[in-house]
């Protein structure tokens, strides 16, 4: 573990995202900030890993699984339209594999891991208020379902902003419901895998990062 407390990662996350909002909305350097988005996304992934209490096999395995799943499903989506719908990625996100930027795999890992971390922490708070024991299956599936709903909501929040910034475009300019259905199902599968791997190490930065990124996209969605 590189950071015992999330102070340094939290400071950097706030700095980069706040600078991005100000730069995109209030300066003549909007294009520069947009085209440096890959640096921010990559840095957040590195900080997330550095904030993990233990870089255990489960954490590494989940990263690889989430990255590969994100890339494979997006490649299928971009090249066939079977998943998510008819869409294409722009040049902002950096190098691509079969039309899909490598950073999209990282993005899937970050979003799903952060949503799972938040749901696990909320579960602990809720369970501490109940005296009667709750079956483990209910606890597990509440994290999976609630986390998938949260990940899908995050995508809904992000979509209009990403389109305006040129991250990707939808055919006809309309975001299909298939996109959100796929986000829910794929996120739920990944969260179920995360539960199965039993990643017990705490990562409080993950919760902060999810909130910061949500506020980033919300700000741009309102004022852009």
Distance between the termini: 38 Å
The shape, in one word, is: globular
Count of DSSP E strands?
4
Count helical runs.
8
From the alpha-carbon coordinates, what is the Rg to the nearest angstrom? 17 Å
Q: Report the β-strand fraction as a percent range.
A: under 5%
H and E order: HHHHEEEHHEHH
Strand order of the largest sheet: 1-4
Structural class estimated from helices and strands:
mainly alpha
Low-confidence stretches: none
Give a summary of the structure in a few sentences.
By secondary structure, this protein is mainly α.
Describe the structure.
71% of the residues lie in helices and 4% in strands. The chain contains 8 helices and 4 strands, in the order H-H-H-H-E-E-E-H-H-E-H-H. It has helices at 7-26, 30-35, 37-50, 57-80, 102-127, 136-164, 177-197, 204-223, and strands at 87-89, 96-97, 100-101, 168-170. The strands form 2 sheets. It has a two-stranded antiparallel ribbon. Strand 2 (96-97) and strand 3 form a beta hairpin. Helix 1 packs parallel to helix 8 and helix 5 crosses helix 7. The longest helix has 29 residues, at 136-164. The protein is globular.
């Amino acid at each position: 573990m590189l950071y015992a407390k999330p102070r340094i990662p939290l400071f950097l996350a706030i700095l980069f995202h706040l600078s991005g909002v100000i730069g995109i909305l209030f300066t003549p350097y909007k294009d520069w900030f947009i085209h440096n988005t890959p640096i921010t996304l990559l840095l957040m992934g590195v900080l997330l890993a550095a904030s993990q209490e233990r870089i255990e096999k489960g954490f590494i395995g989940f990263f690889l699984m989430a990255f590969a799943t994100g890339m494979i499903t997006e490649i299928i989506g971009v090249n066939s339209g079977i998943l998510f719908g008819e869409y294409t990625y722009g040049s902002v996100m950096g190098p691509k594999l079969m039309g899909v930027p490598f950073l999209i795999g990282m993005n899937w890992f970050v979003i799903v891991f952060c949503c799972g971390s938040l749901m696990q922490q909320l579960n602990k708070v809720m369970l501490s208020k109940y005296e009667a024991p709750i079956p483990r299956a209910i606890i597990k599936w509440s994290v999976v379902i609630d986390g998938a709903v949260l990940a899908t909501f995050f995508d809904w929040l992000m979509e209009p902003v990403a389109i305006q910034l040129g991250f990707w475009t939808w055919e006809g300019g309309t975001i299909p419901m298939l996109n959100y259905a796929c986000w829910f199902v794929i996120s739920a599968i990944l969260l179920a895998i995360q539960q199965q791997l039993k990643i017990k190490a705490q990562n409080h930065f993950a919760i902060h990062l999810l909130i910061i990124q949500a506020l980033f996209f919300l700000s741009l969605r309102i004022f852009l």
